[in-house]
Amino acid sequence: MIDDLYSARILSLAANLPHSGRLPAPDGTGQRTAKLCGSRAIVDVTLDADGRIVDFAQDVRACALGQAAAGVVGEHAIGASRNEIASARDALLAMLKSGGEGPDGRFEALRVLKPVADYPARHASTAIAIEATLAAMDAALLARTRLAGAA
Fold it and tell me: Which of 52, 106, 125, 126 could cross-link 76 (Cys pair, CB 3.0–4.6 Å)?
């Protein structure tokens, strides 16, 4: 079972974190921490006029599972809408907690983490990157709304 959890694909995703770092002037930033293990993700985004991610950066300090999930998110975040991120997050959590199939579409690669479902203590760290991305998008959209209201 542990071999499925730390498969070659998961370890490869964990070792190759796309868009690592921070953006100099993001539209929004989100941060999530897994309280049980201390894994942390900070995500910066810049959005286009339609609310899709055009620039993305992540600073992730997590176990191999959290890093692997962040690898998938980093590979596919640019071009994603808030609805796509929220749907992928919901499908990931359903896969981990209630036997769901996992995300489809651009974030389908998160399905590689299905073996994590058997390890509830790892669920939070597996979800931090996508949750931080959603929080960053929400912060960017809120800032945009405030600017429009001030104009």
Answer: 106
